[in-house]
Amino acid sequence: VAAILDILEVGPATVVGYSMGGTIAQALAYRHPGRVKALVLIATFAGHPRLHRLFRVAGLMLARGWERLTGTGTPEVRFAYLLGTGAVDREHARWLWEETHRRDPDAGAQAAFAMMRFDGREWLGRLKLPVTVVIPSRDQLVPPLWQYRLAGELADAEVVEVTGARHELPWTHPELVAEVIERAAKV
Which of the residues in the chain have pLDDT under 50? Predict the structure, then answer.
């Protein structure tokens, strides 16, 4: 990400990270502090509690094994889930099917395992920049408690709780997300 900012000749940027992208945004701000002027972290975490990490890694291994054996798995589950919860309207089902199936399963598995290894809790408090943490109150993938702990690790984070929202907040509340980003970019 830092190299892309360099190529584009972008000065310090407001960086937005959603879910796994939130861990990437945190790492960017830590490793390249001069590249980031503000962070917006949406439905993300600072690190997995040890027991949760063990269970999630085991689940990832089982899911990856199932995908390799059957040729089906994560894309089909993601497709059914996003349509079933209403996060994506049925009129966009064809796009969603194509989008979920164009991803490389090996790259997805590597990214998921990297996310399990991420832990910024030791250094987050040393970040010296404005941070907004957006917390969907009914997030089913990243427990809201983990998101509040992330905010608590930061020196002076603004917390925006979205009551009733789930992990797919950017799809279900796009106007609110845009408003938060716009406000953070003005810092």
Answer: none
